[in-house]
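Thread: quick sanity check before group meeting

JM: Hey all, I'm pulling together slides for Thursday and realized we never actually wrote out the predicted structure for the chain we discussed last week. Dropping the sequence here so it's in one place. If anyone has concerns about the input, flag it before I start.
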Amino acid sequence: QVQLVESGGGMVQAAGSLRLSCAASGRTFDEHDVAWFRRAPGKDREFVAAVAWSGSFTDYADSVKGRFTISRDNGKNTVSLQMNSLKPDDTAVYYCAATYGPIIPLARGESGYAYWGRGTQVTVSS
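JM (edit): ok, ran it. Output follows.
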């Protein structure tokens, strides 16, 4: 089992920045790919970004590419999502998710992820 807890959400004005963190406990963290998903009001949950177990490979949704950066510190069992140039459309609940084991290529679908956090709210005002 892997337990995931997100933090760092909040309210920010458009063009601002936020840094989300995902803290993991349980099984050996560096055996798992980790991703961020988000669910905006009235919409389905969607893929945002993913990082491989080693930190060597990353993947981003087109909507956040160039603005968001995902990274991980396996020594501290954490994954971060640096979000810059935020837009009102980025308003959503952001979820951290981890795979059961490494997947090649990185998964974008929810079904690829076995463990989920409860989410943290990000609100971007115009």
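AS: nice. The CA atoms of residues 66 and 84 lie 9 Å apart. The chain has a mean pLDDT of 95.
JM: adding both to the slides.
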